[in-house]
Amino acid sequence: MTDEFTTEIYYDDDADVSTLDDETVAVLGYGSQGHAHALNLHESGVDVIVGLREGSASRDAAEADGLTVATPAEAVKQAGYISVLVPDTVQASVYENAIEPNLEAGDTLQFAHGLNIHYGQIEPPEDVDVSMVAPKSPGHLVRRNYENDEGTPGLLAVYQDTTGDAEKRALAYAKAIGCTRAGVIETNFQEEVESDLFGEQAVLCGGVTSLVKHGYETLVDAGYSPEIAYFECLNELKLIVDLMYEGGHAEMWDSVSDTAEYGGLSRGDRIVDEHVRENMEETLEEIQNGEFTREWILENQAGRPSYTQLRQAEKNHEIEEVGARLRDLFAWAEEDSPEEEDDSV
Ligand code: NAD
Ligand code: MG
Ligand code: MG
Ligand code: MG
Ligand code: MG
Question: Class of the 9-187 domain?
Answer without folding.
Answer: alpha beta
